[in-house]
Amino acid sequence: MTVNLKYILLLMASIILPGGKLHANASISMSGTVKIAIPVCTVNPDNHITIDFGDKITHKKINEQLYREKIGITANCSDYIQSNMTILIQGDPASFNADFIKTTTDGLGVQLYKENTPIKQGEKISFTYNSAKPNGGVPDIYALLVASNGSSAILEGGDFEGTANIVFLYN
Question: SS3 for 87?
Fold first, then answer.
């Protein structure tokens, strides 16, 4: 009889509890705001960079490479910027060497350097952006006055100018 009682209880349990399993449902609400952040960098907080080589420039000192000035470049970037960046400086090429930036004086150009290594204008320079550094980690770039054909070129006296653009590439 014990076996029959077990079957009867099991049959009654299946009638009282449909499917033999209990479950409960609950709904979950989720919400938020997706902000599309466009990575932004400013160079020299939007200030024009001026390099002044002075007003007593001589041909001899140009050939001795004495007119070398640091280009003060700083970068300030939003938090959405990846740290791997590239910078390039591009201007009109000097008539005597396309790697140099043209000036308004014939036979006078500007050669660029990354620290002590000559670079071509438009050459990509990779660096790691670091907001903790005062200039954002931008490498030191220098401008050096150069004359065509070394010491044989005759330069015209007077004021001169040269222009270039700094381009930052980032994701």
Answer: strand
Distances (CA, A) of 166 to 22, 125, 135, 145: 69, 11, 14, 18
Instruction: Tell me how far the alpha carbon of residue 52 is from its chain's centroid.
Output: 26
In the prediction, which pLDDT does 153 show? 59
Rounded to whole angstroms, how far apart are CA atoms 125 and 136?
Answer: 14
**Whole-prediction pTM value?**
0.73
Taking only the tens place, the pLDDT of each residue in 134-153 is 888 999 999 999 998 755 55
For residue 96, what are its two tokens?
């005597």
Tokens of 77: 């970037």
Q: What is the dihedral of CA 38, 39, 43, 44, to 10 degrees?
A: 90
Secondary structure (DSSP) of 16-68: HSGGG----------------PPP-EEEGGGPPP-----S---HHHHHTT--E
Distance CA 102, CA 161 (A): 9
